[in-house]
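Task 17 of the worksheet. Students: predict the tertiary structure of the chain below and write it out as structure tokens. Keep your answer in the requested format; marks are given for formatting as well as content.
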Amino acid sequence: MKKLYRILIVAALVCISLVTKAQNDGIGFTLLPQMPFANYYNPGIRMEQRGMIGLMFSNVNYSLYNSSVKYKNLFGNDETVVDAVKFVNSLKDDNVINSNISLDFLNVGFRVQKLFFNIDWRLRMTGQFNYSKDFVGFFVYGNGHYMGADNPCDFSLGLEASVFHEFGIAAQYEVNDKLTVGIRPKILSGIVNVSFDNEETKIYTDPNSYAITADVYLNIKMASLLEGTCRKIGDMPKMVDSVAARDMMDFGENIGFGVDLGASYIINDHFGVAAGIYDLGYIKWTKATTKTVDKKNVTLNDGLFGSLSEIRDMELDYESMLGDIIREVWGDSLMENGKDYKTYLKSRFMVQGYYEYNPMLRATAIGQLYFAKGKVHPALTLAYSGKFWNHMDLTLNCTLSKYTGTTVGFGIGGHFGPFNIFAVTDNILSVATIGSPAIEFASSFRQANARFGIVWYW
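Model answer:
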């Protein structure tokens, strides 16, 4: 199974090691009643604490999402043997792998009468990798599956990946006993971005001569503060190999701006509602390098694999295959200096309501709309949360989404005076899936999420 996943990942390595960005980076941690993160996505949700501070490990998150890969579709009747054909047939025409990684270096909050302020500094890594069904099918079936001008292999890929700092100053104001409003303006400082568009490459096999040709369209934009140089397309993996921790501390270039907005309203002792917009903004990337390749009827002199037995037995030489893709399909040509360009954050609109019977029993419903590349992705989360003895929080949630399927999350928080620790996952069944393909519900997960942190508050 690991080898099969590497087929999907190998093309992204051409561009950058970050092939991840999540559709949903988890909302369960905002529902732990005594943790000071209720306003993390919505600065208008009222904070109960008078002050809080978190350093380095106050909030660490990793989320992975994919639109198509299901654990149960990797195997045939023998659950120990990968069925590559079954896997290819289960894919959609256009598939997505994405994730979020974030680390809060600093998160400080304090109250001044009706105002609550937050100052935060986060390192964020985001990305989205798109691949066609035929891209995987080409390595499983071989080019013989795509014969003739009317049946080309759609060898399409897309990637957008970014690493950037986010500096935010949030303020929420209690208009009265019921209404709270908030705003979080943010300054963004980009470290690296790769925008890779290869959505129109077609590979043809002549049914008479078996000659392999390609119509290639490739558009790469890249901006980086990393020390490694990238003079050619094939240099990108080498550049990523040279990344050091000091590269993450560069500031002052690739500046952008963002804002989060929100409001909450307490209807009575039991009911409340809130609405907010998260991640409205952009980054302007400077000192960009670009490459556009637009060629027709390019002859591929060498195959991308040695024999069909390599495909059948999943024994591909991936390093060699990566080099062949660059050389034969895209061309390992020089990058060029390009114009500045902008990338936009993937905005999210949220509406939520809750009913609280007592501190141990709160039910919450959260509707979310994600906006990415002109598409809207909805999700609905139903959650329970409660606090016990002022020392423990619990939350249990279920998220329904067309793209991630149905997931069940769990979170726990411990409170010992000013010291607080928490751990949350928005898909606990993804853990149960490992080694348990017989569990049908668990074996169809398409999203994994983990978040933990240590924070002090008073």
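Marker's comment: The CA atoms of residues 360 and 388 lie 6 Å apart. Confidence is low (pLDDT under 50) at residues 1-23, 432-444.
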